[in-house]
Amino acid sequence: MTYPLSLQGKNALIFGVANERSIAWGIAEELHRAGANLAFTYAGEILEKRVKPLAESVGSKFVEPCDVTSDEQIEKVMASYKENFGRLDILIHAVAFADREDLKEHFYTTSRKGFAMAMDISVYSLVAMTRAALPLMEGGDGSILTLSYYGAEKVVSKYNIMGVAKAALEASVRYLANDLGPRGIRVNAISAGPIKTLAASGIGDFRAMLKHHAGTAPLRRNVTQEEVGKAALYLCSPLASGVTGEIMYVDCGYNIMSVAANDKEPAAEV
Length: 270
Ligand code: NAD
Ligand code: 0WE
Prior knowledge:
Elements: E1 11-15, H1 23-33, E2 37-42, H2 45-57, E3 63-65, H3 71-85, E4 90-93, H4 112-137, E5 143-148, H5 160-180, E6 186-192, H6 198-201, H7 206-216, H8 225-236, E7 247-250
Parallel strand pairs: 1-2, 1-4, 2-3, 4-5, 5-6, 6-7
Helix pairs in contact: 1-8, 3-4, 4-5
The structure holds nicotinamide-adenine-dinucleotide and ligand 0WE.
């Protein structure tokens, strides 16, 4: 028997790589190291030239466009994936978006349109992707993974509609886990600590946020893409065969804290 952390012969489809700093890319690298066959989708033409070379570096030729607000595009990707790979074992959802204006001030100013868009891209996309992937995942020990954040549970100033969307995403993980459990498919989320990615670069004073997290977290530092990747590898591997519907923190322990120590300096400069 191969070691249960090996993903040799497993097929993974990854949504959400924008560049080499993306959490989805951290996950891709770990799944690749474990031997999985990787495939990628990207959100727009501008990202194609970024994602293609990354995919090539892990031996992947399947790189297709997919705007997750479109059921047609999602179904097209799945049909094309089926032609190329036959079956799907691992589905990674690392996609989120809200209007920048809605992450600047108060939650109550969120427009109906902004609310609906954030929920569509950041939450419904998981439901649509899962439904479209299902026929490709039958009869195996499949695994679906998404990314959440602490703002789902507790108020993080300015995270606003994204916090509400992540709360809905975490609930969706539980409902999907219940639906797909009888078919042997597991659905989980990683709640990652803050990481400087493209999605984080639009946030005013993200540096202060990183500093606060590193100073408060028990490990006195911030989490890395690689650490989220390693946790993702575990959740998608047979080592986690008994784990579903779970929201797993990979945040250097930040979420357990109430009153922080008064050596509130990070162990290393952030
Ligand atoms: P990122 O910008 O690298 O990734 C976000 C991805 O979403 C991009 O690849 C982008 O192209 C994609 N996307 C946006 N709209 C889309 C659409 N309509 N169709 C298809 N794709 C679309 O940033 P990231 O930080 O790696 O984000 C990945 C996930 O991790 C997100 O769900 C985010 O909420 C979550 N997360 C991020 C952090 C953090 O601090 N960076 C912490 C916890 C959770
Ligand atoms: O989930 C996220 C990022 C989500 C995100 C970020 C942007 C910035 C640019 C969604 N949509 C957009 N739209 C844009 O136009 N994180 C967990 C990172 C993050 O974002 C924050 C945070 C943290 C942490 C926003 C406010 C406060 C904290």
